[in-house]
Each structure stands twice: as C-alpha cells, then as structure tokens.
Automatic annotation (TrEMBL):
One Pfam family in the UniProt entry: HTH_18
Classification via SUPFAM superfamilies: Homeodomain-like, Regulatory protein AraC
Domain HTH araC/xylS-type intervals: 188-286
Keywords: DNA-binding, Transcription, Transcription regulation
Name this protein carries in UniProt: AraC family transcriptional regulator
One annotated GO molecular function: sequence-specific DNA binding
Record carries keyword Transcription: yes
Keyword match Transcription regulation: yes
Highest taxon, organism lineage: Bacteria
InterPro entries assigned to the protein according to its UniProt record, in alphabetical order: AraC-bd, Homeodomain-like_sf, HTH-like, HTH_AraC, HTH_AraC-typ_CS
CDD domains membership: cupin_MmsR-like_N
Length: 291
C-alpha cells in the first residue's frame, strides 16, 4: 500500500486557528467526525501538498485568492468559493502572493462521507461558488467553535453539523445555474401529467410529442431539474403507491402490480426488490408486524 506523504509551508498569522481532533472509538465506528478544522490567514509562500490521507477536505475562501491543483487540473479560487476533495488523491493548494488567501477549512471522515463525496464528484469540477445567503461558511465557523470549547457533546454535535453541511453542499452543487424560479416552463406541466398518468405506459417519444419538445432535450432538462429521468420519476411514483397499498391494505400483490400499471407481477416483484431491497410480501409482513 502506498504510504501517506505530505509537504507544506506552515505560513499563517498568529491569529489563525488550527484545531486537531482525535475521534473516540464510538465516533470512528458510528459518526461523521472532524479530524482537523481551522481558519487561516496565510502569509506569502503558504502551501500544502499531500496524498494517500484517509480524509475529505472542504476549504472555503473567505478572502483573497488561492490555487488548487487536483486531478491534473489547476483551479483559482476567490471569495465565496470552496473546494471539496478526497485527500487520498494527490493535491496541492497555495496562496496568491499578492492577494493573500484567507481560508476556513475542515478535514473530516466517518459515516457515509464517501457517499457524499461521490455525489459531489459527479461533477468533474471540485469548485463550488456559494450564494451570498449560503449557510455553509457559518457552519464551518460553528465547527471551529465546537472544537474550541470541547465537551461531552462535541462529537455528536459535530457529526450532526457535518451532515447538515454536506447536505447543503450537495443541494448547492445540484442546483441549476440561476434561481429555481427560472424552472423551464414545461417542467411543471410534465410533472403534473406524470403524477396523474403514472399507471399508463408513457414513452419518452410520446411525452416529447405531447409537449412539443425534442425528446433528448426533454430528458436532459427534466433530469437536471428533477434529479431523475421521466422514466425513473414514474417508477418512483409506482413504487411509492405500491408501498401505500402494501402498508394499508390486504390487496394481493398481483392486483397491486396491475393497479400501478405493471402487468407482469414477476417484473413488479423484481423491480420492487431492486428499489426497496426486499420483496413486496416481506415489506408487507414487516410493516404489519409493527402495527
């Protein structure tokens, strides 16, 4: 296994903050946890270069200018921008010598950190520009304050805060450019149509023709704003309705399949199992045993 390597120039002001945390066994096994957190006002020559560290890193630019080199690309960061990277991969970041970088950062690990990172990394760009109203900078500040005044609740509160921070980060990363009020005019009518007709066989070509759209443009734009393709959206509607019938009725599985628009009960069972990780009958039995 390749070993951890790091090279750095620890050039920052005396007022800068760097807090190192050693997680408890419970935190390592169950929580998201902070490894290091801080707020640097850098001096000329500041840089960090490392790889093969089991850690994820978020660095937010409070002021000045910084440069990140990651995955064979170079990025310039200004105020209001952050980067989110996997520290197992080689990375290098440094301050601009004239416009000194002020950064707030957290190294963290544990929980489902990898899952959050992989969702973020679906974009090839590790840089995110935050809206002026984003709560992320304040969340980073809260993590610093939590670790300056550590007590018995610090690890739990840090874990909760990291989840909130990562959730907000993914929401910010997935939001299309511009305000959500600028949702394309055809998305809401299509969603309304699918909500009302999910039991029917709806082909993409039919949907495109009905709404006078190019089918490729429809599919791409729908996924951009709704998170799923029209077909996936319909499947989720069907699964959710099936759950409702399984929980609150004794309607046979075969009839439920037909009611949600799936003629082949075997296909329904396989589809349900692939999405819910259990069969419809097992789902029903488990739910009914709780009531």
């Amino acid at each position: 296994m390749t070993s951890f390597s790091e090279n750095f120039a620890s050039l920052w002001t005396e007022s800068s903050v760097r807090l190192i945390a050693t997680p408890s066994k419970t935190a390592r096994s169950s929580f998201f946890y902070v490894q290091e957190v801080g707020h640097f006002q850098t001096l000329p020559g500041y840089f960090t270069e490392r790889e093969h560290l089991n850690s994820y890193l978020i660095v937010y630019t409070a002021a000045g200018t910084g440069t990140l080199k990651y995955r064979n690309r170079s990025y310039t960061l200004g105020p209001g921008q952050l980067f989110f990277i996997d520290c197992m991969e080689h990375h290098y970041y440094t301050t601009d010598r004239q416009n000194l970088w002020e950064l707030v950062w957290v190294h963290f690990y544990g929980g489902t950190s990898r899952g959050y990172y992989e969702q973020f990394a679906k974009s090839s760009n590790p840089i995110l520009s935050l809206d002026a109203a984003s709560p992320i900078p304040d969340m980073l500040g809260q993590l610093i304050r939590l670790h300056q005044q550590k007590d018995y609740g610090t690890e739990l509160l840090s874990s909760r805060l990291l989840v909130s921070l990562l959730t907000e980060l993914l929401l910010s990363a997935s939001q299309p450019q511009g305000d959500m009020d600028m949702l394309p005019h055809f998305i809401a009518p299509i969603v309304d149509f699918l909500d009302k007709h999910y039991t029917e066989k709806i082909r993409l070509e039919q949907l495109a023709e009905q709404f006078a759209l190019n089918k490729f443009h429809l599919a791409k734009t729908f996924k951009k704003y709704m998170g799923d393709t029209p077909n996936e959206y319909v499947i989720n509607l069907r699964i959710n309705k099936a759950k409702e019938w399984l929980k609150y009725s004794n309607v046979p599985v075969e009839e439920i399949a037909a009611r949600i628009g799936i003629d082949n009960v075997t296909h329904f069972i396989n589809l349900f199992k692939s999405r819910v990780e259990t069969t419809p009958l097992a789902f029903r039995k488990k739910w009914h045993s709780l009531n």
